[in-house]
Amino acid sequence: MLGPISPHRRRQVSEGTIAEGAIGKSVSTNANLPDNLLAMIVIISGTNRPGSNTRKVTATVEAIYKSLDVKTQLLDLAEMPPEIFAPTSYAAKPAAFSRFTDSILAADGLVVVTPEYNGGFPGVLKYFIDMLPFPESLEGRPVCFVGLSAGIWGALRPVEQLQAIFAYRNAHIFPERVFMPGIRGLLDEAGQFTSKEIETRLAKQAEGFVTFVEKLREKKLR
């Protein structure tokens, strides 16, 4: 079932900038972007913590999508430019942040990998979302979620919090989520999973999400 149409989307239809038949569909916002940014899945490593387990999991997620012959781009929040955290960034984004913005606007789908910090997702991930152009960054864009935690719930609460935010922004949420409780026991010293069961679940999610994106975007990713 489709979510409500935002006032911004209604205004675009009335002004003729979006065809009326596009209501309820995922609307491309990347028409003016370079070819090397088109038709891809963007994977977000949702913390800026150095050497995080989230970044290790994200590397495996990226490898799975590449094994499906899907073009990917990884956005590591640990690589955000320091100047984006200046209060003035709310009014004017620093030029160094443009690669993050361009990648999100070009994405056919987003995969958000989030840890659980104090019962929620990291503040830097919310800040990243707040820094993106509104509303075109998330509106109509397919998204799926992977959660991990040291505790027993596998970031269930952070993922549900993110789903609420993305739904508010009229993103298309893929329903199959992957949760990883006890993450410290699931990764070896090299950052590889100690059990194939997790990789199997991630691969199943990736296959389903690619199909989901292709249907919504009406294009092939592979």
Task: Write a concise synopsis of the structure shown.
This protein has 222 residues and is of the alpha/beta class.
Structure, explained:
With 222 residues, this protein is of the alpha/beta class. It has one domain (34-217): 3-Layer(aba) Sandwich (Rossmann fold), CATH 3.40.50.360. Helices cover 35% and strands 13% of the residues. The protein contains six helices and six strands, in the order H-E-H-E-H-E-H-E-H-E-E-H. Strands 1, 2, 3, 4, 5 and 6 form a six-stranded parallel β-sheet that branches. Strand 3 (109-115), helix 4 and strand 4 form a beta-alpha-beta unit. The protein is globular.
> H/E element string?
HEHEHEHEHEEH
Strand % is: 5-15%
Give the uncertain stretches in residue-range form.
Answer: 1-31
| Mean pLDDT score | 87
Number of domains: 1
> So, the CATH homologous superfamily?
Flavodoxin domain
Tell me the CATH topology. Answer: Rossmann fold
Number of strands: 6
CATH class: Alpha Beta
Supply database-style keywords.
6 helices, alpha/beta, 222 residues, disordered N terminus, Rossmann fold
Give the arrangement of secondary structure elements:
Layout: H1 7-15, E1 41-45, H2 53-67, E2 72-76, H3 98-106, E3 109-115, H4 123-131, E4 142-148, H5 156-168, E5 172-173, E6 178-180, H6 196-217
Parallel strand pairs: 1-2, 1-3, 3-4, 4-5, 4-6
Helix pairs in contact: 2-6
